[in-house]
Design goal:
This protein is an all-alpha fold and 90 residues long. It is flat.
């Protein structure tokens, strides 16, 4: 370990440049790191929670896709009107 310390003491610029190069290399690779936080990757295949979750996911319930757009249309129309017109309607 003392030989390593002497090497750093004798060549501080080389040590600094090598540390910067390693930092840049690590920084360039950090963008490719991905985290898979899905239940499938964090549980075993026979886990009851995972089985239940997969059964629930298999059910296709059109909750928000087929709701009437009347409420949305009213909000868009209200946003297009000026604030004075909205107060007059109330």
């Amino acid at each position: 370990m003392s030989a390593f310390a002497r090497l750093i003491g004798r060549n501080p610029r080389f040590s600094l440049v090598s540390m910067i190069a390693l930092t840049l290399l690590a920084t360039a690779g950090i963008g490719r790191v991905r985290f898979d936080g899905s239940l499938r990757s964090m549980t075993v295949r026979d886990d009851p929670v995972r089985v239940f979750h997969e059964q629930v996911e298999a059910i296709d319930v059109p909750v928000f896709r087929e709701l009437p757009a009347a409420g949305r249309e009213r909000r868009v129309a209200a946003a297009q009107q000026g604030p004075q017109q909205q107060q007059q309607q109330q």
